[in-house]
Every structure is written in C-alpha cells, then in structure tokens.
Design a protein that fits this description.
Elements lengths: L1 H25 L10 E2 L4 E2 L16 E4 L2 E4 L10 H51 L8 E2 L5 E2 L12 H6 L48 E4 H5 L18 E5 L8 E2 L4 H4 L11 E5 L4 E4 L1 H8 L15
Parallel strand pairs: 7-9
Antiparallel strand pairs: 1-2, 3-4, 5-6, 7-8, 8-10, 10-11
Amino acid sequence: MTSIRTLASSERAAGRLWDAAAPLSEAGVSLHAQDTDRSSAGQNLDPFPPSLRHNQLQGRHYKGEMGTLRIMRRPRCGFSLVEVLVVIGIIAVLIGLLMPMLSAARRHAKCVQCKAQLADLGHALQMYQNDNKGWLYPCAADEQGNTIPHWGSRVPPHERWPMKVFKVAGAPWPPPYDPAQYDGEPDPIKFPAGPYTPAVLRCPSDENPTEAHSYVLNAHLCERGIKAGGHDFGGLTVSDVILVGEKRSSETDYYMQQGDFDRVVEQYRHGLAIGSNYLYVDGHVSTVLPKDARMGIDPWTLNRGAETDPPP
C-alpha cells in the first residue's frame, strides 16, 4: 500500500514538473530534472535520467521511466504594433505615389476625348462647307452686306449655329418657348439650349458648361469672308489659323475674337503645362498654350489687336 501511495505521489510531482517545462522551453532555458528518492519504493522515479538533464527542450521527445514527454515550442502568431505601423506607412506612401499618376491619367484621357470631339466637329463643318458654297460655318449679312457671325446668343437656341450645322435629331419642335419673347439675353430656364445642342459640343473636362456648349468659333474668319480653299490668312498658312477653341464654362458666347480672348477662351483646360485644345482650319486638332493660340486667332491684326467689340 505504501509503495502505491509513493508511486502516485511521484507521478503527481513529475506531472507538475512537465507542466513547468513548456514555458521554460520557449525562453531557451535548459530544464534540469530534480531527483526524487523514494526510499520506500526502492526505485528511482526521476522522469529525466541524468544523461538528459542538460539537453535543451526544443520540441524533442524525452523518454523516462514514467513515460514519454514531448515539449513543443509554441508558434508565434499575429503581428507586433511596430510591424503593423510599418505596413500602414508603406501603404500610405504607395497611395501617395499612385494618386497623382491616376489623376494625370484621367486628365489625359479627357483631353484625348476632347480632341476627338473637336475632330468630329471639324468633319461636321466640312460637310456644312460642301453644302453651303464653302463657308466655314454659318454666317449672316448685315445691312451693308458684310458677313457677320450672327448665329450665337443673339438669337434663340433653336436658331443658333449648332442647329444649323448638326440639325440635332430629336430637338423639340415647335420650341417650348415663344421666340418673340427672346431679348438676346440667354436664360437657361426660359430658353434652354441643351435640347438644341449635340453632345459632341461638350468637352468631357467641362462638366456643366453654360448654354450647353464648350466650344466657340473664330469670328474673324466670318468677318473677313474666309471660305474653304482661301489663302488670305494674314501671312500664316491654313494649318496655323484656328477655327474652333474652348470657352470658359461660365461664358455664354458662341464666338471668340482676339479682343475677348482672355474673357471667353479657356486657356488651361487640360493643364497649366499644355493649355487647351484647338481645331484649325485645315482640320487638325492640337493642344497649345495661350501664347501660341493667340497667333492663330487673328493673324490679320496680330500686332494691333481687335478693333471692334466681339459678337456674343
């Protein structure tokens, strides 16, 4: 009976020793077994023989007289606060580098789309020229017989040059307003221009243009009676003279002149480094800065500036 009690006591002591060995193994501590002499049992019940007392417990199996003991190193899980902060910092730096690149890519895509729309406008104007004796765009005649750029905001929306060039399909007719009440002052509520303006006249970078259009015609071409195939460009060539430019979103004008360039023309729609898009008389589209665009607006009076008030 005494031997059985002694044996049970020894097993409990060994169990406590094994429980204490696991956390010590993670710190790299060598576990030394304590000798227990149970004289009444007449046996050495030390679970770790002397030959194994100085071995480090690195996930090995230790076999003693009481059985086999396996002590495993606990795996490390999760991340430290420093590691998390480092990762967040790297992500923030990458976002800071990528956002300007994405923004520049979007601006470039809108600029390219705007150029494509100006090219489409150029094709529509060429078709108009073929049907109207070579006139570059709709012009009118004053009392003295001089050609003037009349078809802008002076007249109601359904009579303006976008309708004459494109003949917008689905435009309401008769107009939802009384043309006789139009006094020459645009009113987007009473006289909406949107239904009479094709989408191609709205630049993707110009989200909400006044009077539903982003482009203006060069009034000097009409005033000087320039037609397709003409050669009087004030010393410049047909590829140097501008036919269509981009207007400021807040302006209601349908034409531009040298004298109102700063007020009407949007000079940096696609960036301070490249300027705005322009359609030239020969049909090509370029993105140029204001100093280059001014030369193509009115080469006939380039050094003197415009002498008359610009038409609306």
